[in-house]
């Protein structure tokens, strides 16, 4: 009898390989857990509306932790289980700074993604929309002068800064970390996530576990980057990908194979099911 009730998976660099695909091995292993009564939950820096394809592939029915914990929403009913939007003045200051400094960015809201036209992440989402079914497409609106003029009308869960050089991200992280009302964390090379204060995947997982009466000791988590560390600190079984940053590996109980080697499946079959 397996002792875990939840299997929580980060997306990029963890559940998804470098082609943004859930491998067959990962799919089979996660569905095996589901048959054993384990609920699979996605915990992503992305908005939940951006992972509909993967939700459908894994036949998920419950909550999704998105925007690094800024929004927790039931994917079947649409019920918001937890949310915390950014301070509107802070959103304006961050986006104005980026605009003036020619830094590309994306704003995540409950039902829409605002993106500058030239950034690589926004372009990837737009290109992906071309091959997705209509109900799986990412709702994107491009940022122009009108959007900037009405920025105070936007309820943002996250602002994602996109830079070509990670050195620029490090400088931006230092700059915005001075704000008491913001949480600032790098989620991948060249990306900086900015959310409301006291937001993390770990905090969201704690809130969700209390609501659902699931002990944190009964939760396994998979991740690879800095925005996964708080989740690793609170879960009973934190497992890092081989491609994870060193700080994530240090917080893990196991280190599995990389995201390009179906590391989640390897860990499930070789660590979890053999406990």
UniProtKB/TrEMBL annotation:
- A Pfam family (short name) is Hydrolase_3
For molecular function, the Gene Ontology terms on record are: hydrolase activity
In terms of CDD domains, this protein maps to: HAD_Pase
**Which keywords accompany this UniProt record?**
Hydrolase
> What's its EC?
3.1.3.-
Source superkingdom? Bacteria
Quote the NCBIfam families the UniProt record gives: Cof-subfamily, HAD-SF-IIB
The protein's name is: Cof-type HAD-IIB family hydrolase
According to its UniProt entry, this protein's organism is Clostridium frigoriphilum
């Amino acid at each position: 009898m397996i002792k875990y009730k939840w299997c929580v998976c980060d997306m990029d660099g963890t559940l998804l390989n470098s082609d943004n695909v859930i491998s067959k091995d990962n799919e089979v292993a996660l569905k095996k857990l589901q048959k054993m009564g384990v609920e699979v939950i996605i915990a992503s820096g992305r908005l939940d509306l951006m992972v509909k394809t993967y939700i459908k592939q894994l036949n998920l029915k419950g909550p999704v932790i998105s925007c690094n914990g800024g929004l927790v929403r039931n994917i079947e009913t649409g019920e918001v289980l937890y949310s915390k939007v950014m301070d509107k003045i802070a959103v304006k200051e961050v986006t104005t700074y980026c605009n003036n400094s020619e830094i590309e960015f994306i704003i995540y809201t409950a039902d829409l993604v605002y993106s500058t036209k030239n950034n690589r992440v926004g372009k990837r989402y737009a290109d992906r929309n071309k091959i997705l079914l209509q109900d799986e497409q990412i709702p994107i609106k491009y940022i122009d002068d009108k959007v900037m003029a009405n920025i105070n009308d936007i309820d943002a869960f996250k602002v994602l800064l996109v830079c070509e050089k990670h050195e620029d991200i490090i400088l931006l992280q230092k700059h915005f970390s001075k704000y008491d009302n913001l949480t600032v964390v790098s989620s991948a090379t060249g990306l900086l996530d900015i959310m409301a204060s006291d937001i993390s995947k770990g905090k969201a997982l704690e809130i969700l576990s209390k609501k659902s009466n699931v002990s944190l000791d009964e939760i396994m988590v998979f991740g690879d980057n800095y925005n996964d560390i708080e989740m690793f600190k609170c879960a009973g079984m934190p497992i890092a990908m081989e491609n994870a940053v060193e700080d994530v590996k240090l917080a893990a109980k196991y280190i599995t194979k990389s995201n390009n080697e179906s590391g989640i499946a390897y860990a499930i079959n070789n660590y979890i099911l053999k406990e």
